Amino acid sequence: MNMNISSAQKIKTGMLVVVSILLLAFLVIIIGQNRKLFGSSFSIYANFKNISGTREGNFVRFAGINVGTVDDINLINDTTVQVRLSLDKKIQRHIRPNAIATIGSDGLMGDKLITIHAGTSDSALPPVKGGETIKSIDPIDADKILNNLSRITANGDSITAGLSALVAKINNGNGVFGKVLTDERFAKKLEGTIDKASETVGTIKKTANNVNENMEAAKHNFLLRGYFRKKEKRRIKDSIETARKNAEALKNDKENN
Q1: What does the alpha-carbon distance between residue 240 and residue 42 come to, in Å, rounded to a whole number?
Q2: 220-245: per-residue pLDDT in tens?
Q3: Fewer Cβ close by (within 10 Å): the C or N end of the chain?
């Protein structure tokens, strides 16, 4: 069996190897640029109670731009997870110590990513230093949101069912509202009762006005004029006596103090 390899086959094999190496190098460069593997970088830290599925290699964004990756994740204790962020050196001058890190998603169903918010603008603050820890806000628990939505839906169904039953009773003429809306005789009786009540109120008001007029007339009557004058004098005398007592009490309080 002839095992000799022709020159054409050697050339094809060599070209295939060269193309594969070039393609691999190109992919490494692209991935390296995308993951910020090349160029100068610095690291900062952020602590979370729950990293919500964040993994090493996830992107870090600042002002909507990918500026680094999640470099390392360490569990400090049962309530703290420390995340190390490897960031492009060029953006260090834009991040202040009052920056805030949050965890979000790249799109609705995308991978988790960490977003750095600039915080309050304060030019007096120096840029963040490598190795510093910035503030963070824990992500919202999706399970709690779903549970709350389920409760709201259940309550909504219960309220809808209750309203449906109430409307059905009204349509069937049950209850006061049902009788008012469906029974014409009951509605007319209710209307008559309201009219009579209005007439009664008008009569009471008219009687009260007549009583006031009679009282005024009695005051000016020469037979009762003396009675009302005595009553007025007594009221004035009582008012003066009350004022005198209050003045004496106030004077005694001042002397005691």
Answers
A1: 90
A2: 655 556 666 677 777 777 777 887 77
A3: N
Q: To which residue do tokens 């020469």 refer?
A: 222
Distance (Å, whole) CA 60 – CA 58: 7
| pLDDT tens digits, 93-130 | 888 888 999 988 876 667 888 999 887 766 677 888 88
Q: Given its phi and psi angles, is residue 64 left (phi above 0), alpha (psi -120 to 50 degrees) or beta?
A: left
Longest dimension (CA), the chain: 157
Q: Which residues contact 35 (CB under 8 A, 6 or more apart)?
A: 57, 69
**Which residues pair with residue 161 across a beta bridge?**
none
**Whole-number Å distance between alpha carbons of 121 and 139:** 23
Residue 105: both structure tokens together: 């998603």
The answer to whether residues 44 and 127 touch, using CB atoms and an 8 Å cutoff, is: no
Tokens 């839906």 belong to residue? 153
Instruction: Return the sign of the alpha-carbon dihedral for residues 126, 127, 128, 130.
Output: negative
Q: How many residues does the chain have?
A: 257
3-state secondary structure of 165: helix
Q: Give φ, ψ of 45 to 5 degrees.
A: -125, 155
Distance from C-alpha of 255 to C-alpha of 248, rounded to nearest angstrom: 11
